[in-house]
Specification:
The protein is built from eight helices and 13 strands. By secondary structure, the chain is α/β, with parallel strands linked by helices.
C-alpha cells in the first residue's frame, strides 16, 4: 500500500510539473460574445468572460496547456503577443497576410456577420457613429461614412441619443450580445439590427505567436479539438452562454 501511494503521489507530481501556463489576451473595450469583463468580485477584480475563453479552456482541457485570460488595449495585446513571452495567444482575431507572418492561425471557431444597428426614427442622412481604430472595411464603409470619434459604445450611445448619428456598424453577433448583456445602457435594446446584404461573414481565429517555442504543439491541440467541438455541437452550446438564442 505504501508503494502504491508513493507511486500515485509521484504520478500526480509529474502531471503538475508537466503543466504549461500560457496567457491568452483580448481587447479590453468589451467585445462580446468573444470576450468581456464580468461584474466586479469581492476583491474588485473583474473576471474575463466570453465565448473565446470558454472555447480555449475546453479545447486545452485534455492537454498540458493551462490558459490564463487577460484583457488589454488590443494594440498592446498584439505587441506583447508578437514577442511570445508574456502573451502567447490572441483571442478573437481576424486573418490577414501581415499577421500571418507573426502568428499561426487556428481553425475558425466563429463567423461574424456584418450588420447595422440603427436608432429608431433617426434621419437617414446622418452619419454612422463608430469606434476609434475599428476596421470598418468589412462593412463596405468608407472613412467619410463613419464618425470614428468614440472610445466606447457607451459614448456612441450618447451621440445617438443626442441625434448626432443614425446608428453604428457592428457584427450581428457582437451587437446582439452587447444589447443582451446591457453593455449599451438602458436604451441599447431600442436599436434595430439589420444585416448588410452581399457581405461575406468574417471568421474568427485564435492566433498563436510564432515566437512561442511550443507554438506548433499548441496549434495542433487547438485545431484537433476545435474540429471535434464543432462536430459534436459543443461550440454552439458555448456560444449560447453569451448571447440570446436567435429567433
Amino acid at each position: 500500500m505504501t508503494r502504491l501511494l508513493f507511486f500515485m503521489f509521484c504520478l500526480m507530481a509529474t502531471k503538475v510539473a508537466a503543466a504549461v501556463g500560457i496567457v491568452a489576451r483580448g481587447g479590453d473595450n468589451g467585445w462580446p460574445p468573444s470576450s468581456y469583463f464580468g461584474p466586479p468580485q469581492h476583491n474588485n477584480a473583474r473576471p474575463v468572460l466570453g465565448y473565446s475563453p470558454d472555447v480555449l479552456h475546453a479545447a486545452l482541457s485534455t492537454s498540458a496547456f493551462r490558459p490564463e485570460f487577460v484583457l488589454l488595449p488590443f494594440r498592446r495585446c498584439l505587441s506583447l503577443a508578437e514577442q511570445g513571452r508574456q502573451v502567447q495567444v490572441v483571442m478573437g482575431a481576424t486573418f490577414s497576410a501581415e499577421r500571418a507572418r507573426l502568428f499561426l492561425f487556428s481553425h475558425r471557431y466563429l463567423h461574424l456577420r456584418p450588420a447595422l444597428f440603427l436608432w429608431p426614427g433617426a434621419a437617414p442622412d446622418l452619419p454612422l457613429c463608430g469606434l476609434i481604430g475599428f476596421n470598418y472595411a468589412p462593412f463596405g464603409l468608407k472613412p467619410e461614412d463613419v464618425d470614428e470619434g468614440s472610445s466606447s459604445y457607451l459614448l456612441v450611445m450618447k451621440k445617438l441619443q443626442a441625434g448626432r448619428c443614425r446608428g453604428f456598424a457592428e457584427y450581428a453577433e457582437v451587437g446582439r450580445s452587447l444589447q443582451w448583456l446591457g453593455l449599451l445602457g438602458e436604451d441599447g435594446r431600442r436599436l434595430q439590427a439589420r444585416l448588410l446584404p452581399g457581405l461575406v461573414p468574417v471568421p474568427l481565429h485564435f492566433m498563436v505567436s510564432r515566437a512561442y517555442p511550443d507554438a506548433e504543439a499548441l496549434l495542433r491541440q487547438l485545431d484537433r479539438q476545435l474540429d471535434q467541438m464543432g462536430r459534436n455541437g459543443q461550440l454552439d452550446a458555448l456560444l449560447a452562454r453569451h448571447q440570446p438564442v436567435e429567433q
